């Protein structure tokens, strides 16, 4: 299957100031842009924020071509949203909504373009460690994110390949010719991923889980067992 990009930019090696910035600062940038998208009510401010994000992306050395590829998949959706919001609420509101979405996409692309995937996952594990007391498993959480980041481009690529194949056969308007092959391919990919994880012993209960289960069995005996004691 041919490779397909999907929204976020892959890591681009470099030594720029953006590359050397602490990971927590990049995380904070993404979170801050997401929160600001709900608070900014002036499209001029949103445009200024987008310009700053684009300058930061270009300062990393990733290049304008990667920046365009990061936002290109959502441009048709944003155009439709912008036209609808312009019709309903006017031009300034439509511009603010579209620009805020672009700010979030570019900010996330800065994070992925300047941070190796392993370092990014290690940062996710560190952020999830405080939740271990509530039963969370930081390593499995990071593994889930890694699988998600790998699966989204695969599914997008599967749909693109199936669409091209259906168009070549004159079936681009047939929903079954588009949906069914993508569904079968996605299920097969999920099963292969699950088999690969199971072969590596991932997803199985660990020794601590087995000990807890054994202790629970010992403490939760049947009434007959208690009577025999």
List the helices and strands and how they pair.
Blueprint: H1 17-20, H2 23-39, H3 43-59, H4 64-71, H5 75-89, H6 91-114, H7 117-128, H8 138-168, H9 175-199, H10 207-219, H11 223-228
Helix pairs in contact: 2-6, 3-6, 5-6, 7-8, 8-9
Task: Give an overview of the whole structure.
By secondary structure, the chain is mainly α. Helices cover 75% and strands 0% of the residues. It contains eleven helices and no strands. α3 packs parallel to α6, α5 packs antiparallel against α6 and α7 packs across α8. The termini are far apart.
Strand composition percent: under 5%
Overall residue-averaged pLDDT value: 76
**Rg over alpha carbons:** 24 Å
Instruction: Figure out the total of helices.
Output: 11
- Tell me how many strands there are: 0
What overall form do the CA principal axes indicate?
Answer: globular
Order of helices and strands: HHHHHHHHHHH
Helix content: over 70%
Low-confidence stretches: 1-5
* Largest sheet features: none
C-alpha termini separation: 64 Å
* Structure class: mainly alpha
What brief labels describe this structure?
0% strand; mainly alpha; single chain
Q: What is the compact description of this entry?
A:
With 229 residues, the chain is mostly helical. The chain has 11 helices and no strands.
